Amino acid sequence: MACTSTPVPCEIPEVVECRGERFRLFLDAATLQQRIAELGRQISQDYEGKRPILIGVLNGAFMFLADLMRYITIDCEVDFLKLSSYGAEKVSSGQVYELKKIDADIRGRHVLIVEDIVDTGLSMQFILERLKEYEPASVATVTLLHKVEATQVDVPLDYVGFRIPNKFVIGYGLDYGQLARNLASIYILDDNP
Ligand SMILES: O=P(O)(O)OC[C@H]1O[C@H](OP(=O)(O)OP(=O)(O)O)[C@H](O)[C@@H]1O
Ligand code: HPA
Fold first, then answer.
1. Model-level pTM?
2. How far apart are CA 190 and CA 176, in angstroms?
3. Which CATH number belongs to the domain containing residue 52 in this structure?
4. If you average pLDDT over every residue of the chain, what do you get?
5. What is the distance in A from the centroid of ligand 2 to the CA of 176?
6. Where is the Phosphoribosyltransferase domain (predicted)?
C-alpha cells in the first residue's frame, strides 16, 4: 500500500541536528501513536457519560492533544491555555509565565489537563493551582512524557505515556528554542556525539 504519511512518516531519520546539537531517535512516530491510542481508549472508558473538557497546554502539547482527541471515542470538548518557562534554554527558568488563560467555563466540568511533558513539574503545579479557582467537578492530568528523576514537586499524574530519563528531548511538539516541534518522532540529546 502507498505510504500516506502524516502521523507516521515513511522515513524517520535516526539522528537530527538542532541548534548545533545532535539528537538521536528515542520514540518513533509509530510507537507514539500506539501508546496514544491506548491512552485515548482508557480515557474513553474512564469518562463515559461525563463529557470531559481537555485543556491543552500550549505550545508543546498541540500535537499530542490533536492525536489524543482522535483516539477518544466519547463526547469531549477542548480548550487551551498557554504557559512558558523555558525560553530558548534546555533548563527551566524556574518561573512559570501564563501567556493565555482558558476561555471555557469549566465550573462543574470534568477537566483533563493535557501536557506534552512533565519535567520539573512546576508548570503542572502552576496549572493545578490555577484551575482550582474555577471549581471544576474533577481535574485529572495527562502527560505524554514524564521525566521522573527531574520532577521536583509532587504533582498527581493520572495518565502517562512514557517515563523517560532526565535528558533533553525534542520533536512531536517539544521544542529547542522554538525549533523541532514539527518532527513526528521524539529525539533525545546525544551526550556522546
Ligand atoms: O515540568 P516543567 O519543567 O515545568 O516543564 C514542562 C513544560 O515545559 C514545556 O513548556 P515551555 O515552557 O517550554 O513552553 P512551550 O510549551 O511553548 O514549549 C512543556 O510544554 C511543559 O509545559
Ligand atoms: O526535555 C524537554 N524538551 C523540550 N521542552 C521541554 N520542556 C521541559 N522539558 C523539556
1. 0.95
2. 14
3. 3.40.50.2020
4. 94
5. 8
6. 32-176
